[in-house]
Each structure stands twice: as C-alpha cells, then as structure tokens.
Specification:
Pfam family, one: RDD
InterPro entries: Pra-immunoreactive (IPR051791), RDD (IPR010432), UCP021697 (IPR016795)
Number of strands: 2
Structural class: mainly alpha
Largest sheet: 2 strands, antiparallel
Shape: elongated
Strand content: 5-15%
Membrane topology: Multi-pass membrane protein
GO cellular component, one term: plasma membrane
Keywords: Cell membrane, Membrane, Transmembrane, Transmembrane helix
Length: 138
C-alpha cells in the first residue's frame, strides 16, 4: 500500500505550502465559480442580441468548455485560476506545457462535476489523475 503522506501533494513531490503546492479543493471550486460567472455574463449579453446560439444556460456551458480548453491549453490556467493564484501543471513532466489534448480532456471531465469532486489523498480529482495533471498554487 502506498504512503499517503502528511499533506496533499506530498506523494507528487510538491511542497507543503507556497508556490508549487497543491491547491485546495475550495480554491479550485472558487476558480470554477469565477469562470462560470464570466461565461454566464457573456452568455446573458449574447442572448439579448441573438437566440441563434441557444439559451443562457446552454451558451454558458458551451462558453465555459471553450474557456477551459483554450485557457488550459494556451495559458495553463483559466481566468478564475489566475485570479486565485493557481495553474495547471503536468505531474509526469514538471515544467512541460499541459497541451491541447490534456486541457480538452481535463475540461470535459470537469464538466461532469463528479470527477472533479472526487479527490485522492494528494487532492487531485479524477480528471487530473486521468490527464496526468494537478492544480498548483502559483
């Protein structure tokens, strides 16, 4: 049986506190809420101009997926993560870019909610385990 460690992220070789430490579940949830609010505001404005892209709820979800994939791929963080001082990092190759496919799979799995809410001893959600990533403090 693997050693659990004394703090989240220890099993991944992350520091206990400060930059590079595992981000808490509450902080990550806050980042998702910020991203969702941004997408909701854009969707609300867009739906006032046209209904060709669906209703507010549908467009919010679509925008949130696009935001997560593009920002995860290009910046390794979403606006919500940046606002709360976090970013996505690869566990298998520290310092390497997350990449498009990891960002896409990670975001799509996060959209199902349960994979992100189910965390292991290191504080990683199932979506992070599936993509070899973790969310760290910056």
């Amino acid at each position: 049986m693997a050693d659990i460690g004394t703090y989240p992220g220890q099993g991944l070789g992350l520091p206990e506190n400060g930059a590079g430490a595992q981000a808490s579940v509450a902080r990550r949830a806050g980042a998702v809420a910020i991203d969702w609010a941004i997408c909701w505001a854009i969707a609300g404005f867009t739906v006032r101009l046209t209904d060709q892209l669906g209703d507010v709820a549908t467009l919010t979800y679509i925008l949130w997926l696009v935001l997560g994939i593009l920002c995860g791929w290009l910046l390794a963080r979403t606006p919500g993560m940046a606002a709360l001082g976090m970013g996505v990092a690869r566990v298998d190759a520290p310092g390497q870019r997350v990449g498009f496919w990891r960002a896409a799979v990670r975001t799509l799995l996060t959209g199902f909610i349960l994979p992100a809410a189910m965390v292991d001893a290191d504080g990683r959600g199932m979506h992070d385990r599936a993509t070899g990533t973790t969310v760290i403090r910056s």
